[in-house]
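User: Before I run my own analysis I want an independent prediction to cross-check against. Here's the chain; please return only the structure tokens and, at the end, one sentence I can use as a sanity check.
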Amino acid sequence: MTKLRMGIIGVGGIAQTRHIPTFIKLSDTVTIEGISDINPITAQTVAEKFTISKVYNDYRDMFKHVDAVTICTPNKFHADIAIAALEAGVHVFCEKPMAMTPLECQQMIDAAEKADKVLAIAYHYRFMKDSRAAKRVITEDEIGEPMVARARAIRRRKVPGWGVFTNKELQGGGSLIDYGCHFLDLSLWLLGNPIPVEVTGTTYNKLSRMPDQVNQWGDFDKESFEVDDHVTAYIKFHNGASMLFETSWSANVKSDEESMSISGERGGIDLFPFHMNQMKHGMLLNSEADWVPGEDDPSLPQAQNFIHTCLGNEELVVKPKEAMQVSQIIDAIYKSSETGKSITLK
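Assistant: Structure tokens:
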């Protein structure tokens, strides 16, 4: 196999703005053989827009004609579609989060292992240049053993008012499961994916239900708003490391903030942008990289990693068991908020 034959299941916003254009750029290693969507008009429109020759009314009919599929449906359908594809002998690249529950994640992993097929989850923040620089610094022991992670993914009044983002039945949650999950995944990866043992979390559903809403990303129905719009959490790991976490779609803050820092025994790193903070030679030193290698668009290296892994030339950067770990923490945050108690993970 010299090129991967790809099918796209669910051709809404993320498929049209990220995955389909990216695969087209990588046409030397992948071809889009067909698409499928629950809305046939949308499917036909997208096929014409991107010159894709085949539209499938039933995504299962696609499996015999492709080597891999990219799943861009609402979260509720991730597990069923992924398992069906894997059982048909097709590799799977699934949008984040992996699934609605940790149990569904495990079922996806079991199906991938039984079929001996690749299962990748689209946590693209790992592929950002700053993230890869931080991973290299930590891997090469520049900061010593990582101890504390601080992650903030905060938007000022930017609830996604389109699609199904605020539909709990289809998505499973709001700001945490849509946006904050990227920063949970990135933090875990930089920490070396330690095992989480205790989670304390609080979720809020107030900001987006207040009267006289101002929202920079379009209108939404505040009366039917049923998901979290602000979340905080404290996470402990088996090796003694810990994480302070906060995410929001609609915080009352001065401006948006995407930030992460990790403190180790001898130094630390900050993202975004990338800085390294060290204690050396009796001094406190702060430094930043003038230039970091790699693509500016993380979608390209993410897609390349999946394609080359399917072709047998690379190893997955986002392994499915690591993606399941994110879902376990998300589930524990929701349970902790519901019960008002810390959740112990086994």
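Sanity check: The chain has a mean pLDDT of 95.
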